[in-house]
Amino acid sequence: MANDNVDHEGRSRLASRFFLFTAVPSWLVSLVVHLVFFMILLTIFMPEVDKQRQILTVDDAPDAEEIEEFVMEEFEPIDEQKLEFDDPLEQPEEAEIAEEANFSDFDEEMAATQMADLSDFAEDTMPFSDIMTTQAGMTGNATSGRGKATRTQMLRENGGTGASEEAVVFGVKWIADHQLKNGLWSFDHRTGAKKPGSKDWGEFANSPRAATAMALLPFLGSGMTHKEGKYQKQVEAGLAGLVNLMEVRGDTGSFHEKDGNMYSHGLATIALCEAYAMTQDKNLMRPAQYAVNYIQAAQDPIGGGWRYQFRQRGDTSVVGWQVMGLKSGHMGYLSVRKDTIAGAVKFLDSVQTKNGAAYGYEDPGDRPPLNAVGLLCRMYTGWRKDNPALQQGVANLAKQGPSVGNNANMYYNYYATQVMRQYGGPQWEQWNTKMRDFLIKSQVPQGQAEEGSWHFNGAHTERGGRLYNTSLSVLTLEVYYRHLPIYKSAAAEEDFPL
Fold first, then answer.
1. Within a domain: 201
2. Would you report the helix, strand and coil content of the chain in percent, each value rounded to 5?
3. Element housing 353 (H / E)
4. Is 207 within the bounds of a domain?
5. Is pLDDT larger for residue 442 or for residue 30?
6. Which helix (H) or strand (E) holds 19?
7. Contact (Cβ atoms closer than 8 angstroms) between residue 212 and residue 193
8. Mutual angle of helices 388-400 and 410-423, in 10-degree steps
9. Is 210:53 a contact under the CB 8 Å cutoff?
């Protein structure tokens, strides 16, 4: 009887529960089931969510406004023995390169007086700008001639010699020897790190941005970057120091300084953009783009030029460095606005004479150094080789000839040599022989104080001193391979967008 009562009570409780369950709406049952399931999943995956939250920070956001810090290895004192060149081979008696001559290894010797067939191992050692090409030759971006795969060929074809490369070797070495301990350079080179100069220093001691940029360009022109090359440490420290001197506002970065003003900014922009174009180092991309952006922001909105201060009415000399900065950014596939280039063209139109064969400073004129600047800018902004004004301008430069002697104007020589080299032909051959041989003979020889450097009494020398002259002299001797020819199909693809 007791068992019957128990069974009856159990059945009653079960019936009550069943009744309650069936009385609950189906949607509420579904909600409860899904809620329980969600809580189980949350319990399982919560540790991973917390872990991801710890890893992901604001700094990881791709749209962060701040400029990325340019992180490089700490610049340590360099072992001087490791930086010394081997004794250079004797210079050839004739100003031509023998077919059987060989270059020494670029990473170790920068090819002083010999040449070598580097094609067998070029893909393993050439800079990134050459790796982007499908084959060794005249392809890639405009800096591809600096790589081992093309430098030998371009040096032979365009008039370089073993003696000219030896001059580059020792010129770059002089620059390296006068780097400051903080990685920068000064036009007052008496405070150099290894071999402080004793004479012919520049007055612009407070222009570290301009001095450092001018010092870096010859390294880059020889294919040496912060990623590879004999002076990797020096280039690395110089680039890091330059980036640290950039004043960032919004998406622009300024290298403007009191003494160098917009000259400093243009030079620094060229150096950063060339280093980025050659290495594609992501740490350089934003600083280089910010420098380009500042050039675009500083342009005179009315006349289209640049001068000393922000949006000041332009002059041809300052315009030349800014156009070259924009060109360097463009060849590195950075963003350059069409209206900026159109403005530069507008400015050039406003200072030209002889239908564009000659150029003045702020107004129309005919001054050889500015003629060279204007013509080179015209080449890079779209003038073709058969343009009558370009042909006349080149003829005028050829008649004027290089500036030589103790009062040589290396500013004129630097720009005019590029114009003549890009134009080519018999006029270039005559120009090159005189320009090349003069620089080889006027370099301070080995064994003397200031060996490997140059100093002339031409324009701007009192401000830039021996560093200024040495930098422009080396760059002039690197003209054979520093940029690909403008008037060839590979280079035509590098034209500014107009």
1. yes
2. 55, 0, 40
3. strand 352-353
4. yes
5. 442
6. helix 2-23
7. no
8. 130
9. no
pTM score of the predicted model: 0.73
At residue 222's C-alpha, the angle toward residues 168 and 181, to 5°, is 85
Backbone conformation region of residue 200, classed left if phi is above 0, alpha if psi is from -120 to 50, else beta = left
Pull the structure tokens for residue 148. 């081992």
Domain assignment present for residue 204? The answer is yes
**What are the tokens at 460?**
């701007």
Q: Is 475 helix (H, G, I), strand (E, B) or coil?
A: helix
From the list 426, 471, 396, 439, the residue with the least C-alpha distance to 215 is 471
Tell me which residue has tokens 């094609």: 119
The number of angstroms, rounded, from the C-alpha of 39 to the middle of its chain's C-alpha atoms is: 56
CA 57 to centroid of chain Cα atoms: 31
DSSP assignment of 54-75: HH--GGG-TT--SPPP------
Distance CA 148, CA 145 (A): 8
Expressed as residue numbers, the domain containing 467 is: 80-87+95-492
Match 């960032």 to its residue by tokens.
Answer: 248
The pair of three-digit structure tokens given for residue 424, joined into one six-digit string:
């080519």
Strands 352-353 and 252-254, by their bridges, are unpaired
> Residues near 422 by Cβ (< 8 Å), separated by ≥ 6?
376, 379, 483, 485, 486, 487
pLDDT tens sequence across 333-355: 999 999 999 999 999 999 999 99
Total domains in the chain come to 1
Give the pair of three-digit tokens for residue 243. Answer: 């980036």
CA gyration radius, the chain = 32
| Average pLDDT for 65-71 | 41
Through-space distance between the first and last CA atoms of the chain, rounded to whole angstroms: 106
Decide: 314 and 266 in contact? Cβ < 8 Å. no
Retrieve residue 312's tokens: 């000041």
Beta bridge partners of 247: 254
Cα distance between residue 177 and residue 191, in whole Å? 11
> Has residue 56 been placed in a domain?
no
pLDDT confidence bin for 72, thresholds 50/70/90: very low
Cα→Cα distances 224→38, 211, 217, 342, Å = 59, 18, 10, 33
- Looking at this protein, which amino acid is placed at residue 269? T
CATH number for position 285: 1.50.10.20
C-alpha–C-alpha distance, residues 225 and 223, integer Å = 6
